[in-house]
Amino acid sequence: MVTVNEITASSILTPQRNGSLSSGYDFTINPYLGCGFACSYCYVPKFPNARHSLPEWGGWLEVKMNAADLIQKDRTRIFGSRIFFGSATDPYQYAELEYGITRQCLEMLVKYPPKRLTIHTRSHLMIRDIELLKQFGDTLSVGVSITTDSDAIRQEFEPQAPSIYRRLELLKALKNAGVNAFASLAPLLPTNADRLIELISPYVSRVLIDEARWPEVNRSPELLDKYADFFEHESYQATMQKIARAFPQKRSSHRAIAAPPSSHTHHGGSAHGSHKEPLQLKLSLSA
Ligand code: SF4
């Protein structure tokens, strides 16, 4: 059960002067505070401005009812900037079906287009907005979180989030629409690496792989113990590297976004291939 509050936000742009996103982005935008997906490993409660205690994470949501108005107000800062949309929430969590704040924001952003827009989600609800997303052209990159090949594992770590199958549906829809997308294997959860590669490679042009971090805010530490063999440092690194090697036109680091084998290039290849994510996107991008 998620307690939802409608709020009037005072601002919508969070400048990125320091931190992992700062070299690639000028601002982040989060249409919601909190997140109903409540992933057990979520790092957002680690932020010092978190309003609620860790055990409450996932149980509350604040809806920025005036988010689109704030974007219009900040249009001169937004036009031509680099924006990461959904750094501390999932913009397509289920509340979006009722409130449509993310859609309102994107409708406003497309009027004052940033030079670069990255949206990150775990949710197939994004399919609703495919036509709108297409209007951003090559300035847009969508990261779809695929953390494991196993929906049983997903249910353990991300019980409130959409199934892996639904996320693959989203990747397929994005590919068919020609929307630039990558798969975010961050954090990589226990998985059959070969099967995961097989699942995602038909749909994505790049992958981002990163490890589970922030044990201090992990709300299901028993899962880290249960799958200790998978998370054991050396074998975990080896699994990430194995997946990274499946995408040979890339940087060698498994923390970089990697281009796929040429046989798996999509979206017209070079048109979207020129839009690279920064290496600094090596944190656990979660939402
Ligand atoms: S990791 Fe992302 S989708 Fe999951 S709870 Fe955190 S913000 Fe929401």
| Principal-axes shape call | globular
Quaternary structure state of the chains depicted:
single chain
Q: Do you know the CATH architecture?
A: Alpha-Beta Barrel
Order of helices and strands: EEEEEHHEHHEHEHHEHEHHHEH
Structural class: alpha/beta
Number of domains: 1
> How far is the first residue's CA from the last residue's CA?
20 Å
Bound molecules: iron/sulfur cluster
Number of strands: 11
> Which range does the strand content fall in?
15-25%
The strand line-up of the biggest sheet is: 2-3-6-7-8-9-10-11
Overall mean pLDDT: 86
Cα-atom radius of gyration: 18 Å
**What count of helical segments does DSSP give?**
12
Give the CATH level 1 class: Alpha Beta
Report on this model:
This protein has 287 residues and is of the alpha/beta class. It has a single domain (3-273), classed as TIM Barrel (Alpha-Beta Barrel). 30% of the residues lie in helices and 16% in strands. Strands 2-3-6-7-8-9-10-11 form an eight-stranded mixed beta sheet, covered by helices on one side. Helix 1 runs parallel beside helix 4 and helix 8 runs parallel beside helix 11 (233-245). It is globular, with a radius of gyration of 18 Å.
